[in-house]
Amino acid sequence: MPWIILIIDTVRDNDISNGTEESFVRAVRRPRLYPKLARTRLKLCLVGDRGVGKTSLIRSYVLKEYDNRYVQTVGSRVYRKRVGVRVSDQKLGVLADLELWDITGEKGLASILREAYFHGASGIIAVCDASRRETLHELDFWLDSALRIMKNVSMEIAVNKADIPRRQIRPRDVDMVARAYNAPYLFVSARTGENVEAAYAGLIIGIVRQRVTRRARVPAPPAV
Ligand SMILES: Nc1nc2c(ncn2[C@@H]2O[C@H](COP(=O)(O)OP(=O)(O)OP(=O)(O)O)[C@@H](O)[C@H]2O)c(=O)[nH]1
Ligand SMILES: [Mg+2]
User: Fold this and answer.
1) Domain containing 23 — which CATH number?
2) How far is ligand 2, taken at its centre, from the CA of residue 79, in Å?
3) How far apart are CA 190 and CA 26, in angstroms?
4) Are strands 154-160 and 76-87 parallel, antiparallel or unpaired?
5) 222 compared with 35, residue with greater pLDDT
6) Going by CA atoms, what residue is nearest to atom 26 of ligand 1?
7) Domain-located, residue 32
8) Neighbour order of strands in the sheet with 76-87
9) Distance, CA 205 to ligand 2 centroid (Å)?
10) Residue 13: CB partners within 8 Å, gap ≥ 6?
11) Other CB atoms within 10 A of residue 126 CB
12) 219 close to 2: Cβ distance less than 8 angstroms
């Protein structure tokens, strides 16, 4: 039986500093604790109905910006961000280059282009709007679309607009969908920033853990 113990955490934004490769490597690596460094690329897609806040959640995470105005996304747009993940028990620092795909909420267009949108994706964040119950039920459409293209994709549900007092979606409503897709969920708000980092971190850590685990399987030590 293989045995693996992993403890992983993300590098906080403060650690990441403002972008030079050297400072970033220093932050992830902490040479004495993490002497090994690996690089990886992750494509993450945000999906969900029109107006649920996909663009806002990406802009909040990548640019630390929020805008009250609604500008519909036509087609798709790709944003990039680099994050660090520390895999403690392997003494490994991983630099992950993220491609964040902001995908139209128009179902017709998304169906036609789903091959292009989801091909090569490692993770899906399925977004619904806490103030519109129907957007939760429509996640079936979005998650099924992604699963038709990528069978082994990690999924997470983000119930956005958690700052709005009149919520139409309760945790137990999300439970059922989350269980059906084996996807964790979080209530988040692009407006206040609540749980935004946590939502991305949870998904990214899970994917990096899978990749490292696949590469690092070692035989069990002999019984003593
Ligand atoms: N109260 C509140 N409003 C939000 C939040 N996130 C987004 N919005 C607002 O909801 C509207 C739609 O947000 P978008 O990010 O454009 O939604 P989208 O999912 O990208 O929409 P499409 O591109 O049409 O698919 C905008 O007016 C945002 O300001 C949030 O967390 N709380
Ligand atoms: Mg959009």
Assistant:
1) 3.40.50.300
2) 12
3) 30
4) unpaired
5) 35
6) 70
7) yes
8) 8-10, 76-87, 92-103, 36-47, 123-129, 154-160, 185-187
9) 25
10) 197
11) 29
12) yes
Which numbered atom of ligand 1 lies nearest the CA of 49? 25
Which pLDDT score is estimated for 23?
62
Which residues form the domain of 22? Answer: 3-216
pLDDT at 220 over 60: no
* CA 72 to ligand 1 centroid distance, Å: 9
Domain count of the chain? 1
Taking the C-alpha atoms of residue 68 and residue 86, their distance in angstroms, rounded to an integer, is 35
The atom number, within ligand 1, closest to the CA of 67 reads 29
135-147: average pLDDT: 97
Is 36 inside a domain boundary?
yes
- For residue 224, is it within any domain? no
Give residue-wise pLDDT tens across range 56-112: 999 999 999 999 999 999 999 999 998 888 777 777 888 889 999 999 999 999 999
Nearest CA-CA partner of 58 in 140, 125, 128, 151? 125
Does residue 222 belong to any structural domain of this protein?
Answer: no
Residue 57 and residue 196 in contact, taking contact as beta carbons nearer than 8 Å = yes
Using the atom order of ligand 1, give the atom closest to the CA of residue 73: 23
* Digit-coded pLDDT (tens) for 5-38: 444 445 544 444 445 566 666 666 666 667 778 8
